[in-house]
Amino acid sequence: MAQIRRSCNLKGVHLSLYYVTSRIVLFVCFISYVYLFGGALTAHKVFVSMALFNIIRIPVTRHLPQSISATAELAVACARIQRYLLLEQVQEQQQKMTKEEDEDDREAVVIAESASASWDRQMAAFSNVSFTLNRGELLTVVGPVGSGKV
Length: 150
Known about the structure:
By secondary structure, the protein is α+β, with helices and mostly antiparallel strands. 56% of the residues lie in helices and 15% in strands.
């Protein structure tokens, strides 16, 4: 209950700032124009300024926070990629196999008969599948997500 109350309070503060901030910014701009630059306010200047502020208010209040969030995610992604690219390379070791070792590799390592698996008890990921995998072989189940590769 405390979390819900806190969330509602934050939402109220956010909405209050959303509506009040543009008026405060306009007020500060008009005060600065008059006292710092010695300009004279006319109805034309006030209404044009208010119209321009209202035009940019929605894109700035919506897109600026999203762009800041996307920039932060970009920085994290770039750091991860950089960390990956700076890892030392692993040298692959190739071995020559004798004829006897090659024949041993052909024996089955994994044998499944009528196998079934699921993420939860209600929906099977696959059912009644049989396969034999030899050493060095790879088995994949391919298809679009949610296609029911059953």
